[in-house]
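>> received
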Amino acid sequence: MSKQKQKHSPPQPQGQTPQQRLVQVQASYTGPLPPPEMLRAYEERMPGSGQLILQSFKEEGEHRRAMERSVLDAEIQDTKAGRVEARIGQICGFLIGICGLLVCGWVAVSSASPHGVWAGSVLGGATLTGLVAVFIVGRKHAKTKEESAENRKG
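>> returned
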């Protein structure tokens, strides 16, 4: 015995016509490319559009990677330039410190009075204190600058 499946519609009261239903189907996707079924549908309606979509995706990816590469290269060059500037600053600070101490030593040794020794000592102490202060403040400023740059990125 085989059973045949029959489709039954709900019974309609007499004198009424069956109602029509409007069904709306909505599809969405995430990602850079539409799903293959949608690409096929585009291709059926407008031949060549699927290839155009894929080519556009490929060009956008190449452009994005090139931009990321150029940003990275600029950051590397900026870091190198900062290191060179810091090294030059250290060398100049060292030379200024040595010259200041040599002058202070010369003042202290060449004067016969105790006032000259005191003057040389005070100038030497001021020179060293000034250089140390500038070095410490410069380091703190650089560290604060790096932290603010990281906060902007993150």
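>> Residues 36-153 form one domain.
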